[in-house]
Amino acid sequence: MRFSMKGLVGAGLGWALFGPIGAIIGGILGSQLDGGESSTYQELSQGKKSTTREDFYASLILIFSQLIKADRDIAKKEISFVKNYLQRSIPDAAFVQELMYLLKQVLEKDIAIEPVVKQVAENMDFSSRIQLVHLLFSLALSDHQLAESEDAFLRRVCMQLGLSIADYNSISAAYKPKSDYQAYQILEVDTEASVEEIKASYKRLALLYHPDKVAHLGPELVATAEEKFKTINDAYHKIRKARKF
Length: 245
Known about the structure:
The protein is mainly α and 245 residues long. The protein is 64% helix and 0% strand.
């Protein structure tokens, strides 16, 4: 049975239709395109440049497929968690089916992840890259633990995406047990930081994490961003209460 990803490649993909990501998806499609469509991947190109929802999710699936392989144990529950997350987040059932098909196919292949991450870093805006890493963490922790190999993979991807160590620590802290130290990590400041430094970092992160920054990716990702935005606010108010300012 042939499977067509019309929703993903027909009008959805922008910059991900080209380069390493496009080559991977094109290789998966091969001759599976329906009769009315071109049999060559290049002819599907639409010349888009801005990041679309489809660009974002295609990038997420490709990078996550290699994250799953990082601990050399492809667990069915991780794949099931991804499917459940996509079904909860995306109302378009056909699009979810296409993404799961893409995941299944790339899990069966050996792909070079560095060129994929490089393409994402060069084309996706910073706020969307932050959101991408947050989702990778959420998916990686579907089994409630983060293996050393997975942590190393995520750290490496963060650096390749142009994020800093402080960004990585802030994101990872959001998934750790709540504590005063965790709040400081989330705000990317030292426990000895001045009130002015704390306020400045909060304002910077609040702007960076504001849900409006990812509005172009669709309402489902805006909703996810709102949760992350709340994490920043909660950390700030926790420190304010403790420091009494």
